[in-house]
Model the fold of this input.
Amino acid sequence: MELQLRGPNMKRITSPELAREFIDAQIRLIREQVGESKVLLALSGGVDSSVVAALLIKAIGDRLTCVHVNHGLLRKGESEMVLKVFREELGANLIYVDAVDRFLDALAGVEDPEQKRKIIGKIFIDVFAEEARKLEGVRFLGQGTIYPDILESHGVKAHHNVGGLPEDLNFELVEPVKFLYKDEVRVVGKELGLPDAMVFRQPFPGPGLGVRCPGAITRDRLELVRESDAILREEFAKNGLAGKVWQYFTIVPPFRSTGIKDGKRTFEYAVVLRAVNSVDATSATVEEIPYPVLFHIRDRILAEVQGVNRVLFDISPKPVATIEWE
Ligand code: XMP
Done:
């Protein structure tokens, strides 16, 4: 496949005016490409797929079908936000697939990180393909490919680990943001009226909380990751850190340690906090979080997340550590 490059005269989209121009042009181009056909899109809630969904809704309305797969590894409130924004506010034709049990059952007992990623990727494809086969008259697949995906991985959405769709689902691609950098996608998303929580979202890995629940994923530990992550995100937002720190999240390792509560010994899990700055994820430095903020987050996690008796802060840069724990 020939590598398509951004034209030398293409303006960088830095303002609402330029975003509006881009949106109008893309609506025309999408209509030209798609005609009266139907388009299918996997909508994760990430900024790229959300912007593509919003553009397609403007261009072709309910000839777009979005599929949102809940694999049980999403952050707290994430699926709800996708449903609220796209179904209720934008009137999207949106299929919500609750595949939580399917993913978590397949992952039960699997410790190897790469094996976990493969299972998540494969089931995602299976679920999406099943939904695609139920629909009639779909000719196109919408995709949130962005320019770094083209430059870094030859047009495959970086890190998605999902492989391709089965051969019988031979869709043509609609990729309206494929020549945009991430910051431009955000400007376009803002102009399309998407909420800030979606547009300025920190990077979130495809396998989701699965890589933050190291070793074999259990439902109880996954819940601890989800609840502690929600507290961390809330406190970062309140303390002006959300827009400043590149990526921040919690991890719950697969072992317990002793503690003491109400005079009794406990044997519970530890929550690890991680907050890093990076430009392109190939290296990362640790953000210095003020102690009062750290202590408040610690207090909230210990009080509100049942089954946790210890909170740690990971001070390891990349390299030698990676950003995620697996
Ligand atoms: P690491 O842990 O390798 O992470 O330092 C670098 C960046 O990539 C994200 N990441 C992933 N994203 N699928 C993804 O879509 C994955 O399997 C995956 N693993 C890591 C990570 O969140 C960080 O931003």
